[in-house]
Amino acid sequence: MQDPDHGPFAQRSRQVVGLPAQIVASALGGLVGMQVLRLGGVPGMAAEWAVASAGFVALSALILGQMRRAYPHARIGGCNAVTLLRAAIVCALIAPLLAGHAAGWTVAAAALAALALDGVDGWLARRSGLVSDFGARFDMEVDAAFALVLALHVWLGTALGPQVLLLGLARYGFVAAAALLPWLRAPLPQRFRRKLICVLQIAALIGLQTPVLTGGAAMVLAWAALAAVICSFAVDIRWLWRRRA
């Protein structure tokens, strides 16, 4: 008979017990980071920051539920903690939107901090042996939400029209199409191109937050970034189409 204190069942039990405490600790760190951003000048009133903080707490609870079902490791590691911190920054950027203070230098600075952390989580996952499909998906969904929030800032806080929202909705458009076309749900091979285009997309959206880029220059940057994103999706869709059988 297998020793109940050892083996896969014991390991899974320890994982389920340990993950909630680790997520709570990481979420508290994220909330502290949100307060630092608030005190650092990211605009928003108390009610808006309360909504953003509540959204982050709800997101942390969702992540915990997903990790308990699909995460294969017994500790979240620095990699997922960094991704959760990036998610906290994204939630923090919702507060100025709700308060009617879209775009600007402070939003760009906070977004730049989140972009700087992008890639750190993947490096930490590889270094600590905590690479997982869950971690990759978590990172991708935070990137998608980040792009959408930044696109909303550009739309509401600059002279660019609602077409800039396409930069934040591209990923969600693909997901909606996949809900109707099962062949789009097939796994894609890893490609550095996707990460590069994502970084360029976010960097362009951050640049568009500032008053430095206005008029024609802002329009050219927005459309160039959108063209790169569309081309990247087109390459993946073509790959999936050719292998749909």
Automatic annotation (TrEMBL):
Molecular function terms, GO-annotated: phosphotransferase activity, for other substituted phosphate groups
Gene Ontology BP terms: phospholipid biosynthetic process
Segments passing through the bilayer: 49-67, 79-99, 105-126, 138-158, 164-184, 196-214, 220-241
Cellular component GO terms held in the UniProt record: membrane
InterPro entries registered for this protein in UniProt: CDP-OH_P_trans, CDP-OH_PTrfase_TM_dom, CDP_ALCOHOL_P_TRANSF_CS
Pfam family, one: CDP-OH_P_transf
Record flagged with keyword S-adenosyl-L-methionine: no
Keywords per UniProt: Membrane, Transferase, Transmembrane, Transmembrane helix
Signal sequence segment: none
Family affiliation: Belongs to the CDP-alcohol phosphatidyltransferase class-I family.
Listed name of the protein: CDP-alcohol phosphatidyltransferase
Organism: Paracoccus shanxieyensis
